[in-house]
Design brief:
Helices cover 30% and strands 12% of the residues. The chain is an alpha+beta fold. The strands form four sheets. A four-stranded mixed beta sheet has the order 1-8-7-6, with no helix packed on it. Strands 11-10-9-12 form a four-stranded mixed beta sheet. Helix 1 runs parallel beside helix 5, helix 2 runs parallel beside helix 4 and helix 2 packs antiparallel against helix 5.
């Protein structure tokens, strides 16, 4: 019960500074309004826990069953995703009342039920933590399109050329061999796509000790990285031309200085911090420019098994990835700061079986045409992170905190 209350309260803290108008914004079909996130995560508990397990429970509002379903075809019809920003009703106040109603009912259910609902509650909480990350990135994208929403950060320390680290990063070598990938552990939570645990032969490889920095990305740009088709996959080059990309998302140049944005402010680019908000295409092109490549997800997991899972997560309240601490040795930033693109497609592991029931639609149905990312970001709840966690996005998407680590 305490964990349920903690996770639900964390979602509310992320929306405290938003106006009712802010929570309605939907800046693109890939994103959702903050108000919808607040309602959808509530709908999840109502649909998959309260209705089947709490005796006598009736839906708070039958219309919400349609409005706040995301992609669960077996549960019923749903409002079109690109039109979520048109939902002026229910109001934010009504959505908050909905959350309070469901929370009250969930507390009663948790107090009266046992192990039979434990698995569903756990996935519901991890589902909400995923939406906490999406809520942050979606509102950041929406506010970035509103010039009055972003104020200059007068307290930021500007990164000067003299403060930029000039040391070349080291590569950590791994002998390779058979490695266990994924998990079957019942003692801790994992999504269906992380299972089953299986062995993979990982050839000898090396990983860069840290993520690529903003300073290194500026070198790529200065060498016409966005203008050289030989560096790019064909689909990536077509996307660059179509979208007019010349820098990572949210970068803006004023005179000789590059700026980026936090969740609310325009700030000078920290040249020692990891680059983020880049697509798979950009990550792949940069790696090729450096004479390297992206790691496979199996190489990444093999290396991560020897690293502590601490890092810069949602709980640290940094709104951007942070530079590597000077005292850190070995592999750095494996967890937190920014998601790391891998060259692995998001496909099922050998022996994968779709779970039974409505929650079978959670991950398996998306195992096509997307790429695996690993490690989490500064917007990820720390409880979500483990070495087996597989995130996935399309190659062109970059509104999430996405970065890269070089391999060779």
């Amino acid at each position: 019960m305490a964990q349920y209350e903690r996770v639900r309260a964390q979602t509310m803290r992320l929306t405290e500074a938003l106006s009712a108008e802010d929570t309605m914004l939907q800046s693109m079909p890939d994103a959702s309004p903050a108000k919808w996130h607040l309602a959808h995560t509530t709908w999840f508990f109502e649909t998959f826990l309260l209705q089947p397990y709490l005796t006598g429970y009736q839906p708070y509002n039958e219309a919400y069953q349609y409005l706040f379903n995301s992609y669960y075809e077996t549960v019923g019809e749903r409002h079109p995703r690109p039109q979520r920003g048109l939902l002026s009703r229910p109001s934010l106040e009504e959505v908050m009342d909905y959350r309070k109603h469901v929370d009250s009912a969930m507390i009663r259910l948790l107090a009266s039920s046992g192990a039979d609902i434990e698995a569903a509650v756990t996935i519901g909480l991890h589902h909400e933590m995923q939406h906490q990350e999406l809520l942050q990135t979606d509102i950041k994208h929406a506010l970035s399109l509103n010039p009055y929403a972003l104020e200059p950060d007068t307290n930021s320390v500007e990164s000067s050329p003299g403060s930029v680290s000039t040391e070349s990063p080291e590569f950590v070598h791994f002998k390779g061999g058979l490695s266990f990938i994924g998990t079957d552990a019942e003692s801790s939570f994992a999504y269906d796509c992380e299972q089953p645990r299986h062995q993979v032969f990982v050839p000898e490889f090396s990983l860069c000790e840290r993520l690529v920095t903003n300073a290194e990305w500026l070198e790529f740009m200065a060498d016409d990285g966005y203008k050289r088709p030989t560096l790019w996959l064909a689909d990536g080059w077509a996307t660059v031309q179509q979208e007019g990309w010349q820098a990572p998302l949210y970068w803006h140049r004023e005179g000789e200085q590059w700026l980026t944005i936090t969740d609310r402010k325009r700030v000078p680019l920290d040249l020692n911090a990891p680059v983020c908000h880049i697509s798979y295409y950009e990550a792949d092109a940069f790696a090729r420019w450096r004479g390297c490549r992206l790691p496979t997800e199996f190489e990444w997991e093999h290396a991560a098994q020897s690293v502590e899972s601490g890092g810069n997560f949602l709980e640290q309240k940094h709104s951007l990835p942070q530079p590597v601490p000077d005292e850190t040795q070995g592999l750095k930033q494996m967890f937190g700061d920014a998601w790391e693109w891998t060259q692995s497609p998001f496909i099922p592991y050998p022996g994968f079986k779709t779970p039974e029931g409505a929650l079978a639609e959670y991950n398996g149905k998306f195992m096509a045409n997307q790429w695996v990312l690993r490690g989490g970001s500064c917007a990820t709840a720390e409880q979500q992170i483990r070495s087996t966690y597989r995130n996935f996005f399309y190659a062109h998407q970059r509104w999430q905190f996405t970065s890269l680590r070089l391999a060779k």
